[in-house]
Amino acid sequence: MVLQVQTSTYEAKTQEIAKQLLAATQENRSFFSSLRDQMRWDDKLLAWAMSNPGLRVQLFRFIDTLPALHSKSEIASHLQEYLGDESVELPAALKGMLNFANPDSMPGQVAATTVGTAVETLAHKYISGENIKQVIKTVERLRKEKMAFTIDLLGEAVITEAEAQSYLERYLELMQQLVEASKNWSAIPAIDEADGEAIPKVQVSVKLTAFYSQFDPLDAKGSEERVSDRIRILLRRAKELGAAVHFDMEQYAYKDITLSILKKLLLEEEFRQRTDIGITVQAYLRDSEQDTKDLISWLKERGYPLTIRLVKGAYWDQETIKAAQKHWPQPVYNDKAATDANFETITQLLLENHQYVYSAIGSHNVRSHSRAIAIAESLNIPRRRFELQVLYGMGDKVAKALVDKGYRVRVYCPYGELLPGMAYLIRRLLENTANSSFLRQNLENRPIEELLAPPIVKEEKNSLTPNSSLLTPHSHFSGAADTDYAEEEVRTKAAQAFQSVRQQLGKTYLPLINGEYVNPPEFVDSLNPSNFSEVVGKVGLISVEQAEQAMQAAKAAFPGWRKTPAKQRADILRKAGDLMELRRAELSAWIVLEVGKPVKEADGEVSEAIDFCRYYADEIERLDKGVNYDIPGETNHYIYQPRGIAVVISPWNFPLAIACGMTVAALVSGNCTLLKPAETSSVLAAKLTEILVDAGFPKGVFQYVPGKGSQVGAYLVNHPDTHVIAFTGSQEVGCRIYAEAAILKPGQKHMKRVIAEMGGKNAIIVDESADLDQAVVGVVQSAFGYSGQKCSAASRVIVLQPIYDAFVQRLVEATKSLNIGEAELPSTQVGPVIDANARDRIREYIEKGKAEAQLTLELPSPEQGYFIGPVIFSEVSPNAVISQEEIFGPVLAVIRVKDFQEALAVANGTNYALTGGLYSRTPSHIQQAQTEFEVGNLYINRNITGAIVGRQPFGGFKLSGVGSKAGGPDYLLQFLEPRAVTENIQRQGFAPIEGAD
After folding, report:
1. How far apart are CA 294 and CA 56, in angstroms?
2. According to the model, what pLDDT value does residue 997 have?
3. Dihedrals phi, psi of 196, to nearest 5 degrees
4. Among this protein's residues, is 977 annotated catalytic?
5. What band does 122 get if pLDDT is binned at 50, 70 and 90?
6. Of 105, 192, 284, 926, which one is least surrounded by beta carbons within 10 A?
7. For the whole model, what pTM was predicted?
8. d(Cα 446, Cα 438) in Å, to the nearest integer?
9. Could you give the CA distance from residue 616 to residue 614 in angstroms, rounded to a whole number?
10. How confident is the model at residue 90 (pLDDT cuts 50, 70, 90)?
């Protein structure tokens, strides 16, 4: 029976223990040691970072860049660029040191050496060794101090299957060597045994996601299978060696699937009785208390205890930013006091269930440790059942004080090369320098009462509403939230949507003319590109005569529609957006099946369509107010009116979002609109039609007119009653439309307006200061997401000479690790291309590439659909055909350049200017790219696809298109005519004057 003791009893005891511990940590800070500490550069850097937020940001960014800098002059120039920034107030010592004219000069070299050494010293404080030999020395020293350890392997992010396999092998090797070394260690009762039970001397901590490079909650089953295979190998070997294994917790997106995998695996007969395994709970997560309760229930059912390590959590900034960007509920507490309070609640929960769970309380806060001790002592908890943990280099004095009081302390020791370990180091530095950090407050000698006070939780606003307070004041528009596939019920809903849509495959879809579905002269089958024997739907194609009927219906409807108030038109649009949200899972399934887009990307497309509806609704209400330029005696009103009839010719690659965006922009502006979609995606346009009709667009105002581009498309473009043509597609067709629209037809009384988006030959530059983990992942997503069939996709990567070979090697391995398969499978990252024509055209380009460059990778692909495996060419000339022409498939050219100036020249050396990217941590390069990289959308240190409405308005220039950016503040102006109305309001010399009596 669990003893329930009043919390207030715990509080008195907590205070008593905490005061003793705090006194012990503070007493040996002699005048001389504090003086010596002040002299060292690493301490100076930390102290300056604490006192100056601007310096802190720039200093940590510089430290993050350091691994990529290979010479002293590079270090010196980056030091100047980061710390010489106007936003940074420099301490005199640092200012003097950075005052050199040339990075190659002697003072420059001295600065580089001083700061480089200081950062290395800092890293050694928090990283327990660069190799196993050093780690063994560290843990032997810790054991002399009566401290146990757990070892965590630092390193590059696991983005390839080779790296995932290597991660497992390195842990097997680490355990082997540690156990071998431990045979010479004498037993230390305080840490090697408790209550007559031996405790493993060797413990390692691992990250689940590192065992499979394509780990993804959407593919829960596939991820579980791949990860579990490797974990079983690890756990079996650990048992043979007598080592313990602890599983760390990472980002929130992986939490549920991590817990699910471990719960399943640790109930298997082979592992059920193991008690030398641990799981982690992060107290900064709002749902961590419930997770702990669930784990305790599961442990009761399992019948054998495991360790639960309780920590605060290390990814607060990342989780907060991601939730704000995605419009998702905030998973972490916004207030540190709320995390601290939750930490104490969970500590109590764990310790009061000590017969089912071993507790490991990980903190650097004296109060948190004291709370755990107070509860443990009040409940007489056996020593085996709980221990206290600290991070290596953090809270050393607390750890020593705890050992002296007779508690088991375990130190979490990361090890690995110092430079790849920088990401870890920065997390530690952030923690050390944060205003709210206990360590910092203790250093600053805050009053004991303040340091040890119980956490007081402020009233938090409902976490179920996304945290938009982080978005800038300008971003008044808040987009639709993508589906979070980390949630199991959402994955179930998606699977049900596929079942439901599959039952509707093969239906017939008729054109909509003047509010009626009409019978066309011919039908065409729309096929599933993942499996071309499957007919998604039969689509009716109209004749030229029917196109004329549609045009006449639009003319008849226009006078009434143009007079419909803008607010009313906007509300119809908002209703359409709401209907799409209700049908989100179903629309995603149609996109996956009709155009072969993988599930997550299909879901993102539905969000974009919804955003277009809501954003353009807001925009027309803004524009409808017009502008007043009144002066005394005269009113001047600047207003907009619709142009007339719009013809929208939409592409197959964003069959819902782009069709929707162009169509609703024309409609909400008061134009009657005819939508002629690409033949290969006409079923989706029919689904859009259902939604627009249900939303309330009147007959004749919106019409769905699928037909052959060469006949119906050309007829509508050349029609004298067409006012606006909105087109997205190839450069060849776009230029033809532009030319034809310029010719005045008999009876035509206006010039036609053409809005054309015509593709790109998009490049990403990777310079020598880039974070390669980030760059490789971003390039792979940008080049091979949706098989390279986005206008924004990367088809060129321009890499600077010093890192070219390393980059290509990791790029190839990361691409090899992608899953190629039917778009519907949750594991798929690369699906099919759209049809046989596209497949054959791409194959021709691959053959050209083989003749003019080095084929570095060509992945095999399934037979039953229109598949092409990703292809990478290296050593490509900037002028090669595959560097200049848009391929629209999963083919990537990697170009080598000597310096950044040449990289920009090569990037700008095509006829296109749509999207571009830069991976760099050199401020001057980022600045230069912003002004000189000729693209409509430039993305820095992120992938170059996935523009979001109202956040990254999309469109380019040169031969990438003509017109304003979709999803931006100028877009609707293209569908409107501006007018100025001036009225003289004087009568007989009299006019009202504002402000006069």
Report:
1. 40
2. 61
3. 75, 10
4. no
5. confident
6. 105
7. 0.95
8. 10
9. 6
10. confident
Q: Which of 659, 662, 664, 661 is nearest to 697 (CA)?
A: 664
Residue 400 structure tokens: 């020593």
pLDDT at res. 3 = 36
Q: What is the mean pLDDT of residues 642-651?
A: 98
3-state secondary structure of 938: strand
The amino acid at 669: S
Which residue in this structure is represented by tokens 């050992």? 403
β-strand 957-958 against 912-913: which pairing, if any?
A: antiparallel
Q: Is 963 left (phi over 0), alpha (psi -120 to 50) or beta?
A: left
Asked if residues 834 and 652 have their Cβ atoms less than 8 Å apart, the reply is yes
Q: What is the pLDDT of residue 7?
A: 60
DSSP string for residues in 239-290: HHHT-EEEEE---GGGHHHHHHHHHHHTTSTTTTT--SEEEEEETTBTTHHH
Residue with tokens 């970072």: 49
For helices 396-404 and 366-378, angle between their N-to-C axes, nearest 10 degrees: 20
**What pLDDT, on a 0 to 100 scale, did the predictor assign at position 99?**
86
Q: What is the pLDDT of residues 840-885, one digit of tens each?
A: 999 999 999 999 999 999 999 998 899 999 999 999 999 999 999 9
Annotated active-site residue in 413, 791, 822, 934: 791
| Cα separation values, 658 from 536, 947, 949, 950, 967, Å | 20, 12, 11, 15, 10
Predicted pLDDT of residue 996:
60
Burial (CB count within 10 angstroms: exposed 0-12, middle 13-18, buried 19+), residue 859: middle
Q: Give the confidence band of 1 by pLDDT, cuts at 50, 70, 90.
A: very low
How far is residue 64 CA from its own chain's centroid? 19
Report the alpha-carbon distance of residue 96 to residue 43 in Å, rounded: 18
Q: What is the dihedral of CA 479, 485, 486, 489, to 10 degrees?
A: 110
Q: Tell me the average pLDDT of the chain.
A: 93
Which tokens in the block code for residue 786? 């949706």
Does 672 participate in catalysis according to the annotation?
A: no
> Contact 943/778 with Cβ under 8 angstroms?
yes
Catalytic position from the list 757, 768, 822, 886: 757
CA neighbor of 373 nearest in space, from 21, 686, 679: 21
* Residue 537 host element (H or E): strand 531-541
Does residue 418 carry a pLDDT above 90?
no
Query: For 340-409, what is the HEC assignment?
Result: HHHHHHHHHHHHHCCCCEEEEEECCCHHHHHHHHHHHHHCCCCHHHEEEEEECCCCHHHHHHHHHCCCCE
